Amino acid sequence: MAKEVLQRRAGDNVYLHKDFHGALSCGITYIEQRYGPDAVRAYLRQFARAFYAPLTAALRERGLVALEEHFAHIYALEGGVAHLTRSADELLLDVKVCPAVAHMRAHGYPVARMWRETTATVNDAICEGTPYAAELAAYDEKTGRHRVRFYRRGS
Length: 155
Description:
Layout lengths: L17 H18 L1 H15 L1 H10 L1 H15 L3 E5 L3 E6 L3 H8 L10 H11 L4 E8 L6 E7 L3
Antiparallel strand pairs: 1-2, 2-4, 3-4
Helix pairs in contact: 1-2, 1-5, 2-6, 3-4
């Protein structure tokens, strides 16, 4: 029998990490129960500053188009439906159903009581040090449906 060698790289695989959201939800619940809500926000802020540093730099350099491209790409990968509306000083992100929340609910994972902070705190941290700010304008706990307004500070 001939030996067959299969060579693959991570980039050859379809991007998929949906179970990550369930693990993050459990982690958020643990941090909240053990250390309190402020610790959850501090953890998410620290994570976002590090992980999204390139996005923050792009936002600073290229403006709201960087966020628009990022969210369009992420929601396409996650299989989510997001509507983006951008003007010179504002980007509106409308998500009908959060793909992470939908996945967790479909698989029986608990959704952390503070899950909304993965949108509110993370987007706020991404905007730190840029001319822009983020505002969570609406959030539905059951579906994760949300609206985020990114806008130029002072406008």
